[in-house]
């Protein structure tokens, strides 16, 4: 597992939980010293989209058994910046074995949505 994936998992608070509607949810708090904020952006740190995607992919391990290799991103929309120390809820739902729908929330506000496609090759 990469150091960045380890840092993402360290930012999670608690285990992923399965909700009644088929979504898997996990809470994250990315502190000021989280490596993803380095240089993005100076004096105005914003969580990069790729980190949000990696965190979403980490949730799929609950049904895939491991964090998959992301090979495709579809319909990505980022509506709100995520700053250090924000409480972020990331939700993932399987759409077949090799695709997942991801939602990123700041409180009740939708911050991002995207669909990830995976390569399950070993």
TrEMBL record:
Q: Which domain of life is it from?
A: Bacteria
UniProt-listed InterPro entries:
ApeI-like, HotDog_dom_sf
ApeI dehydratase-like domain sequence ranges: 26-95
Q: Which SUPFAM superfamilies match?
A: Thioesterase/thiol ester dehydrase-isomerase
Q: What is this protein called?
A: ApeI dehydratase-like domain-containing protein
Species lineage: Bacteria, Pseudomonadati, Thermodesulfobacteriota, Desulfovibrionia, Desulfovibrionales
């Amino acid at each position: 597992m990469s150091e960045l994936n380890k840092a993402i998992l360290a930012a999670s608070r608690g285990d992923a939980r399965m909700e009644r509607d088929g979504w898997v949810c996990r809470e994250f708090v990315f502190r000021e010293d989280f490596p993803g904020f380095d240089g993005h952006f100076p004096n105005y740190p914003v969580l990069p989209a790729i980190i949000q995607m990696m965190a979403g992919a980490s949730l799929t391990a609950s049904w895939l058994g491991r964090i998959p290799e992301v090979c495709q991103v579809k319909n990505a929309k980022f509506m709100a910046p995520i700053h250090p120390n924000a409480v972020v809820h990331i939700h993932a739902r399987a759409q077949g074995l090799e695709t997942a729908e991801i939602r990123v929330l700041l409180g009740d506000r939708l911050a991002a949505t995207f669909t990830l496609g995976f390569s399950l090759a070993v």
